Each structure stands twice: as C-alpha cells, then as structure tokens.
Automatic annotation (TrEMBL):
Keywords: Membrane, Transmembrane, Transmembrane helix. This is YjiH family protein. The chain crosses the membrane at residues 21-40, 60-82, 103-120, 126-150, 185-205, 217-239, 245-264, 325-351, 402-423, 435-457. InterPro entries: Gate_dom. Residues 142-242 form the Nucleoside transporter/FeoB GTPase Gate domain. It comes from the Bacteria. Pfam families: Gate. The lineage of its organism: Bacteria, Pseudomonadati, Pseudomonadota, Alphaproteobacteria, Rhodobacterales. It comes from Paracoccus stylophorae.
Length: 458
C-alpha cells in the first residue's frame, strides 16, 4: 500500500510525472557513478572523478599552471578595484565575488603575488623552494584548479536533483537514534559529504534560521557532519601518495567520522549549548518522514520534489559556471596565501615544532615512524585542512602518511573556511569551542588512524 493510501499527504502530481522521474533518476545515477563507482585505474581501483582529475593533470599541466597565474592575478586586481577602487559592481554576483573585507583582499593579493613569484622564479628562495611554493603553487593548487573545474559541474548531479534527499531520508531514523538529531540532519550532512563542507554548514544555518534545529542541534550538525567531500578527499589522498588505496582511505575516514559523531554530541562543548530554538521561529516539526510512510517512500517523495525544482540543462550549465568562478576567484587565491604562509612558518621557523613537541613522545610510544616529522600535522590543521597533507607528503613511511592524510580530513574544524563560517553563523560557538572540538576530534582520530593503518590497510 502506498504512503498516500495510508493517509499521508499526497505528493504533487507533477512530481510523479515521467519527465520528473527521468530528471530525478538520470542525473542522480550519473552523479553516483562519477563519485561512487569503483573503476580500474593505472595501478588500482579508483573513481571516475579521480580518473578525470589525473587525466587533466597529466595532459594539461602547463596550461593549468598559467591558468592559476591568470586566476590569482585577476582575482587580486578585481578585488582591489571593486573593494577599494572606483569600480562599481554591476551584478549581485560581482558584489559577492569581488567586494569583500580587508582580510580577504589581503589574502587574495598575497595569493597572486606568491603565485607570480613562484611561477616566474623571480621570488626569494623561501617562496620558490620546492617545500613551499613548489608544494602549494606547483602541486596542490594546480590539482585544485582541475578539481574545482570538474566538481563545479559534477557535484550538482548529486546535490540538486534529489539523490541527496533520497539517501538522507533513508538515514533519517538512524541519525535520530545514533546522534540525537532530527531526521533532516541526515540530508544536511550528506550535503557536505557529497558537496562541500561550507555548503553543509550554510544549509544547517538556514535550517536553524527556519526553526528546524535547536541551537545545540544546529551546532552539532555543523561541527560533526560537515565533513570534507569525496573530491577533496581524493586530492588529499593523491597529494600524499595514497591514491592507490583511496577506497580503504575513504572507508577509514567514514569510520572515524562515525565514531566522532557518536561521541561529540554527548560531551562538552556541544552539551553546553542551549536546546532552545532561534527566537521568532515556530517551525519545529521534523517532517522528513510522514506518519505511516516508509523510508523509501519518503526518500522518493523528497527526491522527486527536489527534482521538480532542479535546474534544467541551460540553468545547470550557468550554475556550474558560477560555482566555478566563485571557487576559482574567491577560494583559490586565499588558499594559496594561507597555505604558503603556513608552510613558510613550518619550514623557516620553529613555531610548529614547538607547538607539536608534546605530541612527539606520544606518537613514538604508539610506534609511529618519523614521529617528529608527523607531529606538526596534529596542530597545523586548525589553520587549513590541506596543511597536514602538505607537511606530510614528503614523509617516507606509508603508514605515517596515511595518518597525516586521515587527520587532514577528520579534524574538520579549520579556520580558513568552515571555522570562519561557524563563527559568523550565531550558533553559540566561539573560538574556544571550535578549538576544543578540533582537539577532541584529533584525540579520537589519531589512535584510530594508527590502528587502521597498521592492522587493516597496510
């Protein structure tokens, strides 16, 4: 018997049309195949998205390098022009992309300067060194350009056409039982897993503003399930030379994330937050699954409803292009600046060595090879998620590189992006809370990653 036959609210007839079914199934299947389907790679199994990234990097490396120069310089100049110069943005997108505050203006300009000085070889040794500029500009950011180009058009297949809603409904009851969260949180968590962590945080904030989550629930979803997406995980794995064990790597990421999600909602600082809804809101009903409706029926209803409002092909292309422009011109230059400054600090100052000294004997006691080289990765990830992997890519021990890559993904709270969004979101979280969550996740993830590396993966 159908859900509607048991008294559930009837689905909109337009949702059940053949055209809408095709709009739901075909893009979702393509997205699932692109990011989740195992395919044979050069040495082992990988995903189609990874094959495409590797092909672009292998065949268009020079073009990508000079594209990076063009992107960072253009971003810096336009941001200066529209933020402090006489330029007047003519569209909302121009305002969103190129009119920003002084910190981001500075980061984008620094990103452009670092990129030009490294690429032309005109900069000092601390910029052109393989350990700094070679790692950030010559390797990481070139990979990210290719990743952003493909992800801008690939990820909406999973997030915009109903796949996310369908799977989220299937997981909704498990989220309530295991993580003490409303069923809707499964969908918001998947938005991060299948899209990007900032997207998941922003969706969570929107739900909080509508009265779907309490303050504690919203903070829990944002800090526990806004995990690094599949494409970014592939870049991290490739960066540290673990692309050949990507499925094992991502399985361990999932397992560690699951354990963290079981523990964090039940301990401070999340339990310190109030269980009140945002003042002025009244929509406190979790209607992910209607009464008398099976999880599959709920997922199908939500997926079809999402597909009906999803973009058609021209809008899909337009949206993908806008996503690409945002990621290239907003995120890439700032990431160059943050990563370069962090690596210069690591390579030319003892700051991170001092901060990581207490962890060296712990890692040595746990039998971690090259513990002194790996220790900074336990603390540097609070600045940006790429930094542990950038520091650890030169470590010889495969098991230790695996540990570093796991930490890059599992620590989750990084101030260059997710942390900054959380602090602006008015969810009751301050910098101290975020630091505590970062430390707790590190404490949980480190021994689990060591055990998995030694006894499961290698």
């Amino acid at each position: 018997m159908s859900g509607a036959g048991r008294g559930n609210p009837a689905a909109d007839p337009a949702d059940r049309s053949t055209g809408n079914w095709l709009k739901f199934v075909i893009p979702s299947a393509l997205g699932a195949a692109l990011f989740l389907l195992p395919v044979p790679g050069a040495e082992t199994w990988t995903i189609p998205f990874g094959v495409m990234i590797d092909w672009l990097n292998a065949n268009f490396a020079a073009l990508l390098r000079w594209t990076l120069v063009a992107v960072t310089v253009t971003s810096g100049l336009l941001t200066l022009w529209y933020s402090y110069g006489p330029g007047t943005p003519r569209t909302p997108l121009m305002i969103q992309y190129f009119r920003t505050g002084p910190v981001w203006v500075l980061l984008r300009c620094l990103g452009a300067v670092f990129t030009v000085l490294y690429t032309t070889g005109a900069g000092p040794e601390w910029i052109t060194s393989g350990a700094t500029g070679g790692t950030v500009v010559g390797s990481l950011m070139v990979n990210l350009l290719a990743l952003f180009a493909l992800a801008s058009f690939g990820l909406p297949l999973l997030s915009d056409y109903g796949f996310m809603e369908f799977v989220g409904a299937l997981l909704s009851r498990a989220f309530r039982v295991l993580f003490q969260l409303p069923g809707r949180s499964a969908i918001d968590g998947l938005a991060s897993w299948l899209g990007a962590a900032p997207l998941g945080v922003m969706l969570t904030v929107q739900q909080y503003d509508k009265g779907v989550y309490t303050t504690r629930e919203a903070a829990t979803v944002a800090t526990t399930f806004s995990i690094v997406s599949i494409p970014f995980c592939y870049v991290i794995a490739s960066l540290v030379g673990l692309a050949d064990v990507f499925f094992a790597f991502y399985g361990c990421v999932f397992a560690i994330g699951f354990v963290c999600a079981l523990i964090l909602p039940r301990i401070p600082p999340l339990t310190w937050l109030p269980t009140d809804y945002k003042p002025g809101t009244s929509n406190h009903v979790d209607d992910t699954v209607h009464e008398g409706e099976s999880l599959v029926q709920a997922g199908t209803r939500l997926g079809l409803a999402r597909a009906r409002t999803a973009p058609n092909f021209p809008d899909f292309i337009k949206s993908g292009f806008e996503n690409l422009v945002f990621m290239w011109f907003s995120l890439v230059p700032a990431t160059v600046a943050i990563a370069m400054m962090a690596l210069v600090t690591v390579e030319y100052t003892p700051v991170f060595q001092w901060l990581s000294m207490p962890f060296v004997p712990i890692l040595e006691w746990a039998g971690v090879d090259e513990a002194r080289a790996a220790a900074p990765s336990l603390v540097v990830g609070f600045a940006d998620m790429y930094l542990p992997a950038l520091i650890g890519k030169s470590i010889e021990s495969q098991e230790t590189r695996f540990l570093v890559a796991i930490l890059s993904v599992s620590q989750l709270i990084y101030m260059s992006e997710v942390g900054a969004i959380l602090l602006r979101a008015n969810l009751g979280l301050n910098i101290g809370h975020l630091a505590m969550i970062f430390v707790i996740r590190t404490i949980i993830a480190t021994p689990l990653a060591i055990i998995l590396a030694k006894y499961v993966v290698f």
